[in-house]
Amino acid sequence: MKTCEHDVSRYCDLPLVEPRKLAPNIDRNRESLVRYIEKKWVNHTVLHYYFMQDRSDLAGPPAQLQAVRDAFEEWKNLSLGLEFVEVNQAVDAEFRIGFAPGSSWSYVGRDCIDLVPNHEQQTMNFGWDLTSSYGRDTALHEIGHAMGFPHEHQNHKAGIVWNEAAVYANFAGSPNFWDAEQTYHNIIRKISPEDVAGSSWDKDSIMHYQFQAGLILQPSGYENRPLIPAPGLSDMDKQEARKFYPANNQIQWPELKPFLSHLLNIQPGEQLDFTIRPEQSRTYNIQTFGSMDTVIVLFEDDNGESIFLAGDDDSGTDYNSKIALRLINGRRYYLRLRLYSTGASGVGGLMLW
């Protein structure tokens, strides 16, 4: 993560999370696409954040809260399809933010709800001052994780070859005091060992750590000098955020009607959105068909705000995404579908019944 001179050794410490289990003997390219996309939110999601001020061990002063609000606003000002809304109750928030001293971290993307469903538990922490240049980058960095973006220095396309002994020794000391597992998880580990249609290495990414001289053996040029990213969001950060979360608010979404299938012919990472207006109140089934890896998420329109109702993710498995839920006549719902990868045919279908 980017730092200033006086804070060069303080780093984001991601929670240790076991990789999601996929089907045995899964195709390597398919696995890579799933890993690249799996933690991203579906676009047009309203994400709520809550400051855990009711707990003395997690409360922060007003200036720190405002720095986080400003960082959310900076991401939003990229004209993204995501919304960030501050709420007054933890139960309403996907992101629950504390200010316990010592370490800054966040769960990555959908892990915030998949792994931390208890609304009394935090999903993000800021352990140092956010009003400095370093602190502002810290806030942007952790929110980037919450949006689903991993550490950039762990991008396998970076081609970084570590002086592993030096890396482990450096992070075992002050002020991090990481054990070998933490250092491996946050530094040495590659996000994906396979070739994936992701971005090339961005050494200036907000998601990149700064590294002092002596830790990197390759690429050439960093053996004897530090790697210091430029401050703020890089051009590639902005490009990647807009790629996964495009604004396109004025697109007319097709309507899902009972027993009428929709052809799904999109590329990995792309998303389709549908509107559902039930003509009678009953339990409906929504399911994908074909050999595609998808995630589907159902929202209800509540006076212009999309409220999450249910979702299913079939990526890396041999079944199809399916939601069964009672829908009410007179209300409007949105079904959002993100594609991970396609089967041999490259197409699939979606049906409501």
UniProtKB/TrEMBL annotation:
User: Gene3D superfamilies, alphabetically?
Assistant: Collagenase (Catalytic Domain)
GO BP term, example: proteolysis
Peptidase metallopeptidase domain: residues covered: 37-187
List, alphabetically, the Pfam families matched: Astacin
List the GO molecular function terms.
Answer: metalloendopeptidase activity; zinc ion binding
Region forming the signal peptide: none
Which named protein is this? Peptidase M10A and M12B matrixin and adamalysin
Naturally occurring in which organism (per UniProt) = Paraglaciecola polaris LMG 21857
